[in-house]
Design a protein that fits this description.
7-stranded mixed β-sheet; 4-stranded antiparallel β-sheet; binds pyridoxal-5'-phosphate
Length: 520
């Protein structure tokens, strides 16, 4: 390449590079008959390590060809109708146009003097999301927020802010820190435990309450907070989930909010998954009570259909971001609230510049993806994509319920379907324990189903035709579909379920012919 850096003089190279990349994406979309290739992780590891990084290829075309062979040909296609495994979405096209703009212009959303317009656009969206949440009686200053790299980062900063809020009350910080607790339901995201570790809390700081089904039980919460208060244990935060990652369950936010307010405890609502309900024309009421939160996590790269990464943390009292602010003379001097020399010393809007609120310093302009998508589709348009996914999940649940070879484990509350294979196999008539005393239990359908879950998931992964996830519900393994595809057809659903049934039947037969172990 002549000049590898983007400038007025390299516009042609820029346009050609983007066109070549776009055409690779086109090829990827055209060639993608299955959600993933059948290449094994070992094969892919071999190809990747075979690349000699000390010998550059020298031109973009060759580099793209190489990337096609080690990445694009094998990338898991989240847009594919038979990709129903994890919380990955097909992406909104306006957001991809935004990605090109932000990557090319490379604005860092940090200070007014580095990206005034970007700071203003992000701030406008933060206010828009805060309005959608509708925080109850804002205390102190107005709600505020910041874009982050994901739900894990948003949760970390929320819990950091809650910790500081709690420790800022009277008393000695150092002696209270190791005794602080965080109370969650049993299905809170793993990032809560990680955050507790990073925040210097004790190893057993996160108290996971047994739920009422999949949801947090406000009565148990009330009892727990009361007994913690009685024993003089301080609670930094209660974390409720609006859409558990694993089950798509939404905690009863209004009742939990009332309990937290009675006990004067910070309520964080992790709506990383369910946040899209904020714009849902038909399911917004599932988030009833979310306004009682002190902080809220929303992942736009899940149910707003934006490319990774795009998330936000919202605080009911925006002043809470003061805990994240550290000043530097060269960047955001404390005596210059505009942090941009004289030119923009008066803050045009909202809180301080982004760097005062963010845990990052140099930060991508991810907000533009949301802006462009919102301006093209509108809030209802985005929400309808989620609504259609929820409808699809319900249709799949109905299909499973009517299928004698499958067992529905939970009716979906959001867009997650939990089920088990239930193959018809001949059960041996004689007692089948290999235990000499003959006291072992005979096989039951349930034992066989449980035994098949992981192998079915692994077999489907290896084939690459239909991708599903596996998890555990109430102590029993089960398969999981996470539906984030508004265009999913009954034909596609039928193919996925047929693949599950076929794999289960094959594996069950194989288990019977090779071992009797499964029946003991
Ligand atoms: C996905 C998810 C997270 C983590 O978000 P990332 O963007 O993956 O970091 C946190 N909480 C819930 C409920 C989630 O579903």
């Amino acid at each position: 390449m002549n000049d590898p850096l983007l400038s007025r003089h390299s516009r042609d190279s820029h346009a050609a590079a983007l066109a070549a990349a776009t055409s690779e994406v086109g090829r990827y979309l055209d060639d993608r008959a299955t959600p993933r290739s059948a290449a094994t992780p070992d094969e892919l590891a071999h190809r990747t390590s075979a690349v000699d990084l000390d010998r550059p290829l020298g031109d973009l075309t060759s580099a793209l060809e190489e990337v096609r062979a080690i990445y694009l040909d094998h990338a898991v296609g989240y847009h594919h109708p038979r990709y129903l495994a994890h919380l990955n979405c097909p992406v909104a096209i306006p957001a991809l146009a935004a990605e090109t703009l932000t990557a090319s212009v490379n604005t860092a959303v940090e200070t007014w003097d580095q990206g005034t317009s970007a700071c203003l656009i992000e701030q406008r969206l933060i206010e828009w999301v805060a309005d959608l949440i509708g925080f109850d009686s804002p205390t102190g200053t107005a709600p505020d927020g910041v874009f982050t790299t994901g739900g894990s980062a948003s949760n970390l900063q929320a819990l950091f802010t809650a910790r500081e809020d709690r420790l800022g009350r009277a008393g000695d910080r150092c002696s209270r820190l190791p005794r602080l607790r965080i109370v969650t339901g049993e299905h809170a995201h793993l990032s809560v435990v990680k955050a507790a570790r990073l925040l210097g809390l004790a190893p057993d700081a996160v108290i996971a309450l047994p739920g009422d089904g999949d949801r947090m039980d406000p009565v148990t919460l009330e009892r727990t907070l009361a007994s913690l208060a009685e024993s003089g244990t301080e609670v930094a935060a209660v974390v409720a989930v609006a859409g558990t990652t694993d089950h798509g369950a939404i905690d009863p936010l209004r009742a939990i909010g009332e309990v937290c307010s009675r006990h004067d405890v910070w309520l964080h609502v992790d709506a990383a998954y369910g946040g899209g309900l904020l714009v849902s024309p038909t399911h917004r009421s599932q988030l009833d009570g979310i306004g009682a939160a002190d902080s809220v996590t929303v992942d736009f790269h899940k149910t707003f259909f934006l490319p990774v990464a795009a998330s936000a943390l919202l605080l009911r009292d925006g002043a809470g971001f003061r805990h994240s602010a550290v000043h530097a003379d060269y960047l955001n001097p404390a005596d210059d609230p505009g942090h941009a020399g004289g030119a923009t010393a008066v803050k045009p809007t909202g809180g301080g510049p982004a760097v005062d609120k963010s845990l990052q310093t140099t930060r991508r302009f991810d907000a533009l993806k949301l802006w462009m998508t919102l301006r093209v589709l509108g809030a209802d348009g985005i929400g309808r994509l989620l609504d259609a996914s929820i409808d699809s999940a319900l249709r799949i649940a109905n299909c499973i319920e009517q299928d004698p070879e499958l067992e529905l484990v939970r009716r979906p509350q959001l867009s997650t379907v939990l089920f088990r294979p239930h193959p018809r196999v001949d059960v041996p008539p004689e007692p089948c324990s290999r235990d000499a005393a003959g006291s072992g239990p005979c096989p039951t359908g349930a034992a066989l189903s449980d035994r098949l879950v992981r192998p079915v998931r692994d077999a489907l992964f290896a084939e690459g035709h239909s991708l599903v996830a596996a998890t555990v519900v109430d102590g029993r393994p089960c398969l999981k579909l996470t539906v984030l595809d508004p265009n999913l057809t009954d034909v596609d659903v039928g193919l996925v379920l047929a693949d599950v049934r076929a794999a289960a039947g094959r594996l069950a037969a194989g288990l019977r012919s090779t071992t009797t172990e499964v029946f003991t």
